[in-house]
Structure formats: structure tokens, C-alpha cells
Design brief:
The protein is of the alpha+beta class. Among the domains are: 55 residues; 88 residues, Bromo adjacent homology (BAH) domain (SH3 type barrels, Roll). Helices cover 22% and strands 26% of the residues. The protein contains 3 helices and 11 strands, in the order ββαααβββββββββ. The strands form 3 sheets. Strands 3, 6, 7, 8, 9, 10 and 11 form a 7-stranded antiparallel sheet that branches. It has a two-stranded antiparallel ribbon with strand order 1-2. A two-stranded antiparallel sheet has the order 4-5. Strand 1 and strand 2 form a beta hairpin. The longest helix is centred in the N-terminal third of the chain and has 37 residues. Keywords: Metal-binding, Nucleus, Zinc, Zinc-finger. GO terms for molecular function: zinc ion binding. This is GATA zinc finger domain-containing protein 1-like.
């Protein structure tokens, strides 16, 4: 049963008609406001998109047709650009040389050095090459020098004219166990005009020209 002032609602009983109309109006206003906000948001987003796509020329000339966005393909520059490749790990390798600077002294190939063994015996050798490892530790390979009958005792000094060249050593020795004696040419003990040439003369096999004795029949 309804009257001009009251109406029956489900689960609520009698309600004033003015209250029902006010609730309907407020609900309608809220729906309209949500719809308007949604329309404004869509218009703003479309404006942003068009602004991004419009170029400098279309902004100056409103009648110009905006450039259509195309998918970016591979250009000439991209052909030369390659993906970065990780560099391989560096490997420490020893460095060889003909000279080295060590503790204020300049060592070079051919220099004469002295070394002392565990029994405090003194020996002389000639430097043949240098080696610097990854820890900057400096070593050298030597050629041993053999004394002769005319050589003075090793403790009294080194006389280069009385020593002959000895065996070559392939194992590098640290420079810290060597003491510099003097500079000398690297081929001093190998030359034929030295006072004491090598015990075994170096062989010279092979030659290009030769002559044969005439054969009489």
C-alpha cells in the first residue's frame, strides 16, 4: 500500500517518498559525475598521444598531415652496431728482453755476473737473456764461464782474458742472487780472435759454391 507521502520498500518497511527521491537523485548525480570524469580522462590521453605523434612541421602548419608512425627497421647504422662481447680474461704471460733495470743497475745481454753456491764457492757467468714474470720478478738465463790455468782465484777478481765459454743453462735464475761484475759484448767468448776461443769451434755446414779439382784421364 502506498500513499502520497509514504511507500513500502523491500526489507525496509514504510519509507518517506521524499527520502526515496533524494536517494535516487544523488545516485544519478554520482553516476553522471563518474561518466564525465571518464570522458575527460579519455580526451586528455588522446590529446597526449596526438601531441607525441605530431612533428615540428605539423605544429607550425595546422593543415599539414601528421606523419604516420611506422615500425622502425634496420638502418645502415644498426648494421655496423654489434652486440657487445665480453672480453676474455687476461692471462699473465712472462716477457723476455735484451736488457732490464734492477736495483739501480742496468743489466744487458753479455754482462758478466758472479754467483755464490751453498758452499760459498764463487762462479762467473755471462747473461744471455732476461725474463720478467707476471709478478714483475726478474730472472736471467746465463752461460757459465770456465776458468783456465792462467785464471786468478775467483775470490781475487775476474780476468775476462783467462776464461773460456762454458755450457749454456736453460733454467732462469733470479737476479737477486747475481752480482754485476762488468759489461762485455755478448759474443766476446764466441769470437775467433779472442785470447781463448771456444773449445769446440762451431760447425758451419752447407755452402752454395764450391770448386772441384780437375780430373785427368
Amino acid at each position: 500500500n502506498e500513499s502520497p507521502l509514504w511507500t513500502n520498500a523491500e526489507n525496509l518497511g514504510a519509507i518517506c517518498l521524499d527520502c526515496v527521491n533524494e536517494a535516487r537523485d544523488s545516485l544519478k548525480n554520482e553516476q553522471e559525475e563518474e561518466y564525465d570524469d571518464k570522458q575527460d580522462g579519455e580526451q586528455k590521453s588522446s590529446k597526449k598521444k596526438t601531441r607525441l605523434t605530431r612533428s615540428y612541421k605539423t605544429r607550425l602548419n595546422p593543415f599539414a598531415i601528421p606523419k604516420l608512425g611506422t615500425s622502425k627497421g634496420k638502418g645502415r647504422r644498426s648494421m655496423f652496431k654489434k652486440a657487445p662481447i665480453k672480453a676474455p680474461d687476461s692471462v699473465a704471460t712472462p716477457i723476455t728482453g735484451q736488457s732490464v733495470f734492477y736495483k739501480g743497475s742496468y743489466f744487458q745481454v753479455g754482462d758478466i755476473v758472479s754467483m755464490i753456491d751453498e758452499e760459498f764457492n764463487l762462479y762467473y757467468a755471462q747473461l744471455r737473456g732476461f725474463l720478467v714474470d707476471q709478478y714483475c720478478e726478474k730472472s736471467a738465463v746465463v752461460t757459465w764461464l770456465l776458468p783456465t790455468k792462467e785464471s786468478p782465484p775467483p775470490e781475487e777478481g775476474f780476468d775476462p782474458a783467462t776464461y773460456v765459454i762454458g755450457p749454456d743453462e736453460e733454467l732462469p735464475r733470479k737476479l737477486e742472487c747475481m752480482e754485476f761484475i762488468m759489461h762485455a759484448p755478448s759474443d766476446y767468448y764466441k769470437a775467433k780472435n779472442t785470447p781463448y776461443p771456444p773449445i769446440e769451434a762451431p760447425a758451419e755446414p752447407g755452402y752454395i759454391w764450391t770448386s772441384l779439382h780437375s780430373i785427368h784421364k
